[in-house]
């Protein structure tokens, strides 16, 4: 991967992977956007994806 390229865009290499980009959120989504992160995690556990 070239320097400066986000690994987030390589998620499609993992079968059934899904990625959520949270605008304005950095390395600590659980601190910076706890409600959004929690809802995403609940959705993930409910669907297994």
From TrEMBL:
SUPFAM superfamilies with a match to the protein in the record: alpha/beta-Hydrolases
Protein name: Alpha/beta fold hydrolase
InterPro entries: AB_hydrolase_fold
Alphabetical UniProt keywords: Hydrolase
UniProt organism field: Nonomuraea purpurea
Keyword Hydrolase: yes
GO molecular-function terms, A-Z: hydrolase activity
Superkingdom of origin organism: Bacteria
Entry annotated with the keyword Hydrolase: yes
């Amino acid at each position: 991967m070239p320097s400066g390229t986000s690994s987030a865009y390589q998620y499609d290499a993992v079968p059934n992977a899904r990625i959520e980009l949270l605008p304005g959120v950095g390395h600590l989504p659980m601190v910076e956007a706890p409600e959004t992160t929690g809802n995403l995690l609940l959705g993930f556990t409910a669907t297994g994806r």
